[in-house]
Amino acid sequence: MTSRKPGDVPSLLRALARTGCLSHAVEESPGITIERARSLLEWAADTIARSGLHPPPVQVCFGAKGEKAPECLRVFTDGAARGNPGPAAAGAVLLDPQGKEVERFGRYLGKTTNNVAEYEGVIMALARAAELGARRVELFTDSELLVRQLSGRYKVRAAHLQPLFRRTVELLGSFDEAKVRHVPRSENVEADAMANKAIDDGIST
């Protein structure tokens, strides 16, 4: 049985937080194999559970293959609905790794709910990132519900959200590497602005 040394955990967790993927974190942690990393993470999870602490997930990693991607995009998305349901739209801003804007856009969705708009924003943005040739994406959203559903912490109980959830997972899995991060609304103002502009434009036409 592999011994578990708590002292190994901080460096592994820091590498995992930095890279977002276990295989990459192991590469940055000399002497730690994938099997040992899993054992350490299980130990950490057990320790946190016994302590009664339950920090919310802030990142989900999908389908990392350890490949050098030709392009990487940082994708900020948001959904807005004026009323729930009400006039709604999705917005997105795509940036390169240096923070330079690649593209921004919004789409009016008609009358729907905020949660639908959030998912539609992610789907719209990921599909566009794929069209642009990105192989690695970092997705940023201020929807805690969406992040927790994608992490598996929350089940997708609403029947009308399930197809959107499945499409989102499918798109995330199509990239060599995809990370999903929760950000506060104050860090997502540009995508929010695109969503609200799309509502204004949609209502006025």
- Going across the major beta sheet, what is the strand order? 1-6-5-2-3-4
Strand-residue proportion: 15-25%
Average pLDDT, all residues: 83
What's the helical proportion of residues? 40-55%
Q: Give the N-to-C terminal Cα separation.
A: 67 Å
Q: Might you state the CATH topology name of the largest domain?
A: Nucleotidyltransferase, domain 5
The CATH C-level name of the largest domain is Alpha Beta
Shape call: globular
Taken in chain order, the helices and strands follow as: HHHEEEEHEHHEH
* Rg over C-alpha atoms, rounded to the nearest angstrom: 19 Å
The count of β-strands is: 6
The CATH architecture of the largest domain can be named as 2-Layer Sandwich
Tally of individual helices: 7
Q: Unreliable stretches, pLDDT < 50, 5 or more residues?
A: 1-6, 56-61, 63-70
- The count of domains is 2
Short structural summary:
With 205 residues, the protein is an alpha/beta fold.
What does this structure look like?
Residues 1-6, 56-61 and 63-70 have low confidence and may be disordered. This protein folds into two domains: 6-55; 72-204, Ribonuclease H-like superfamily/Ribonuclease H (Nucleotidyltransferase, domain 5, 2-Layer Sandwich), CATH 3.30.420. The protein has a six-stranded mixed β-sheet with strand order 1-6-5-2-3-4. The relative contact order is 0.17. It is of the alpha/beta class and 205 residues long. It has helices at residues 9-19, 22-27, 34-51, 114-131, 144-151, 162-173, 189-204, and strands spanning 59-62, 72-81, 86-95, 101-112, 136-141, 177-182. Strand 2 (72-81) and strand 3 form a beta hairpin.
